Amino acid sequence: MANLTNDFRYSLSPEPHKQRTREILKAHPQIRELISRNPNSFFYILGFVFIQVGIAFLMRDQRWWLILITAWIAGSFANHALFVLIHECAHNLIFKKRWANILSSIICDIPMSIPTAISFRSYHLKHHSFQGNYYLDADLSSRWEAKFIGNSIAGKALWLLLFPVFQALRPPRLKEIKFMNRWTLINWIIVFGFDALVVYYFGWNPLFYFAASLFFSIGLHPLGARWIQEHFLTYPPQETYSYYGPLNTIALNVGYHNEHHDFPSVPWTNLRKIKETAPEFYDILVSHRSWTRLLFRFLLDPNLSLFSRMVRENRDGIPVIQS
């Protein structure tokens, strides 16, 4: 159980994945064959975007409460799958050309209501290289964020409910990462332009559905427990956890998080095969079987907070935490 604390945990050890990758490759060199790209993922992108746009069209004359229910039951899962596909694009796991992956990720953003793809790409790749570095890993909450939310049920529920907002407030801390580039502008123009067309022709209800689907897909919903599952210290000192439950089917195997960090160049379709090929490396790790159970544990356990993360110094000259 994590200890009730007002600060992160600190590690003097390197992040665990590079060493395990070397050990797995030594024992199972055939895993290199799983490193590939999967252009078929692009058809998943088109399919989920079509589903979301179609549902939004049907919601144009519906009551607000029905829109929320539909977003909770259906839109959350479709948007979450699109986030997973944005993640695939960030690692260039769909097409060989970088620009093709970037454009594909922007297409994922069309039913998101706000542009996320290019910013995610910029910050997520640093997360892999500098896991746990306070000034390079956007996956870590800011200290003010963790103090503001605290350990209460209400605070943690608010954090999950407004998770996209809190994430959007982290970039000023990450000064080494460039926030804006030409792709960011293209991303904004396409997504906000689509939003404007939707509102002009069909009213605000479809956009409300898009926004509700976005917040539920990564927030106060069983799917939102994914953020707790991946790196929160639910069973310290282990700092990365996989989820092997049934929702991996519609979540495109995103639960295989240790496997992904060990082999980030393996597409989602092959992540299960990593564990099947090297079970002796993964069966000994703690894993989660239920996002719903983990969601309630996070909310109800006062020993779990946004400070339940491992922080380390990954680069000379950058202190772990500055006052």
Order of strands across the main sheet: 1-4
- Report mean pLDDT, rounded to a whole number: 94
Shape: globular
The value of Rg in angstroms is: 19 Å
Largest sheet composition: 2 strands, parallel
Supply the number of helical segments.
Answer: 15
Structural class call reads: mainly alpha
Q: Give the percentage of residues in beta strands.
A: under 5%
How many DSSP E strands? 4
Note the gap between the termini: 28 Å
| Low-confidence segments | 316-323
The percent of residues in helical segments reads 40-55%
| N to C succession of SSEs | EHHHHHHHHHHHEHHHEHE
Number of domains: 1
Question: What does the model show?
Answer:
The protein starts with 8 loop residues before the first strand and ends in an 11-residue tail after the last strand. The chain is globular, with a radius of gyration of 19 Å. It has one domain (9-31, 38-312). 52% of the residues lie in helices and 3% in strands. The strands form 2 sheets. Strands 1-4 form a two-stranded parallel sheet. The chain has a two-stranded parallel ribbon with strand order 2-3. It is built from 15 helices and 4 strands. By secondary structure, it is mainly α.
Short recap of the structure:
The protein has 323 residues and is mainly alpha-helical.
What would the keywords be for this entry?
323 residues, mainly alpha, two-stranded parallel ribbon, 52% helix, globular, disordered C terminus
